[in-house]
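So, can you check this record?

>
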Amino acid sequence: MEAPLIYDVGLCNGDDSAYYLHLGFRVVAIEANPNLAEAAEQRFASEIASGQLNVVNVGISAERGRAPFWICDDHLEWSSFHRAIASRGDSVHHAIEIPTVPFDAILEEHGMPLYCKIDIEGNDHLCLAKMRKGHTPPFLSLELSRLSSGNSFVTLCELGYKRFKVIDQARFCTVAPRVYRLLDAPSVIGAVARRANRLGRSRMSHDGWRFPMGSSGAIGPATPGRWLDIDSARRICDLVEERKRNTSLLEWFDLHAALEEPGWAEPLVVGSISWR
């Protein structure tokens, strides 16, 4: 039987795709930067040859065509169709022109994935906009931002997603107010907590795979913590925004969503993950 499919929308350096391949999934990896796409083709030559991985070098946009894409030379992961994102912190950046496709064209060509990771610096919402209720991945994640979180919740609910997790990507944990109070403590206790937290993040692993710094971490049911309803998840997002305003620490949060009922009769187990 063919392995289930995962989308890595925003391949970047390939660390997330490497984890998905390690678990035994087939992967469609989408990357706008042609240099990063080429590097992935070299890194994963055997997986591409076997058909386990397909690297698609296009940008996701509202319609098919060509558009300027801003490469952030200082932080490749910040490259974006939005110059304001690629130039953050006065980063060196330059523009190239690349082909673009709407996300529904990707779905039509490659099929519906079990899980879809979306992290494309300002355009995550364009993927959600091309999905339709009843034709969505059972699990997905996207980067949480101040400008998109409210609209993303509305769209996700309209698509049928009922369960949510807000994952702190600097620590690979669910957001918890008591943890943040400890980390922010201006005392020896706070300093010790922050050091322990950094060490814990660097040693985080799943199914024999250690997550490199900057990777997205565990997926679907393997993510830490319990699933929340939308009201609880919204309150957590409010906490996230408050923390971003009040701290200078590196912050990165992902919103994970799951359908209430995955839609298959028998439990699906891939690697060590039961996808219920």
Summary: Confidence is low (pLDDT under 50) at residues 189-194, 199-203. Residues 163-269 form one domain.
